[in-house]
From TrEMBL:
InterPro entries: Homeodomain-like_sf, Transposase_8. One of its GO terms (biological process) is DNA transposition. SUPFAM superfamilies: Homeodomain-like (SSF46689). This is Transposase. Pfam families: HTH_Tnp_1. GO terms for molecular function: DNA binding; transposase activity. It comes from the Bacteria.
Length: 80
């Protein structure tokens, strides 16, 4: 019988899914867990209001960095 993943492992898998925006199937395969298992972990994380706040802050930060990255690329393209 396989051992249960640690809470840290679960949190990291959920964080990667939320932050990177990759396909859930790919992330599940990368972490060696089933698609439905990862989906269940994500649902459980979203039900936890404390973690939801931290995730929301992380998502806002990612969106801000993506906008900044896009703007810098556009500026670079204009200069070239």
């Amino acid at each position: 019988m396989a051992s249960r993943p640690s809470p840290e492992f679960r949190s990291e898998a959920v964080r990667v899914e939320l932050a990177r925006g990759l396909f859930r199937k790919q992330i599940a395969a990368d972490f060696g867990v089933g698609f439905s298992t990862l989906s269940r972990w994500i649902q459980q994380e979203r039900k936890n209001p404390e973690k939801l706040t931290a995730q929301s802050e992380l998502e806002r930060e990612v969106a801000k960095l993506r906008r900044e990255n896009r703007q810098l690329r556009e500026e670079r393209d204009v200069l070239n």
